[in-house]
Write a structure and sequence with these properties.
The protein is of the alpha/beta class. 52% of the residues lie in helices and 11% in strands. The chain folds into two domains: 30 residues; 213 residues, Glutaredoxin, CATH 3.40.30.10.
């Protein structure tokens, strides 16, 4: 065998190995994973994905949101309504033809940023197949609460996405002065923004999301409900896509089969 032919074979082998090393994870991610689903007997029609991923957690949840007595009173008032109407509490008004995805996250949660990137990839691959409803679940201290209040206040002025995109990049620098500066930079009415941050309406939204999270026993972030399937933690892109597939054309209030 000539020297050049031997070199060509060696080079080809090296390229093949390199391609496999780089491509194998992607190829594996394309395989449809098996789903280990278990009915939540106390919460029909919902079920849970048995395999949980990596989470970020801290206790007690919502420390600093309200005085303890107020939180307990609000939780008691909300708990039964959320249990009686879980689909409404999770998703609000449905979007016909799309699978609803509820996302519970904290701005200081690194695993939430991981899943944000994966959700963006899934949205590119599966346009018009699902829609996201975000629930703020600030479990990691005062900065998390301020960030959550800020995005909900920005939402009143139609700027949730802009505020979210800015704050998710700078989770460690979040205080009232910073979020006000961001609000000004994206053209919000600062006086209305700061008032909305502290409003009872914003507090009620946070408490409702906490009540829904408690209903599903979410002890950390990120947490998700895809249609009628709940799970906690990070999962692969392929698994998330598989969940969207099995939940397609199955309304949230339909019986699980």
């Amino acid at each position: 065998m000539s020297v050049w032919k031997r070199r060509a074979l060696l080079a080809g082998g090296a390229l093949a190995v390199g391609a496999w090393v780089k491509g194998a994870p992607h190829l594996l991610s394309l395989r449809t994973p098996s789903l280990d689903l278990r009915d939540l007997d106390d919460l029909p029609p919902f079920r849970e994905l048995a395999a949980a991923g990596t989470i970020t957690t801290n206790q007690p949840m919502f420390a600093g949101l309200l005085p303890a007595d107020d939180v307990s009173a609000a939780a008691r008032v909300l708990a039964q309504d959320v249990r009686d109407h879980p689909c409404d509490a999770l998703y609000g008004d449905p979007v016909p033809g799309r699978v609803p995805v509820a996302v519970f996250s904290d701005f200081r949660c690194p695993n939430c940023r991981v899943m944000d990137a994966r959700l963006s990839e899934i949205e590119r691959d599966m346009p018009d197949r699902f829609y996201i409803v975000r629930h703020e679940l600030p479990i990691l201290g005062d900065a998390s609460i301020i960030a959550s209040r800020a995005v909900l206040a920005a939402q009143r002025q139609g700027a949730y996405s802009e505020m979210y995109a800015r704050l998710i990049r700078t989770p460690a620098v979040t205080d009232l002065a910073y979020v006000s500066q961001v609000a000004s930079g994206i053209g919000l009415d600062i006086e209305a923004f700061q008032s909305d941050m502290q409003s009872s309406r914003t507090t009620d939204q946070l408490l409702k999301s906490k009540a829904v999270a408690s209903l599903f026993h979410f002890i950390g972030t990120p947490a998700f409900v895809v249609g009628r399937t709940a799970f906690l933690g990070t999962v692969t892109v392929s698994l998330f896509k598989a969940l969207i597939g099995v939940e397609t054309d199955r309304p949230c209030d339909a019986t699980v089969t």
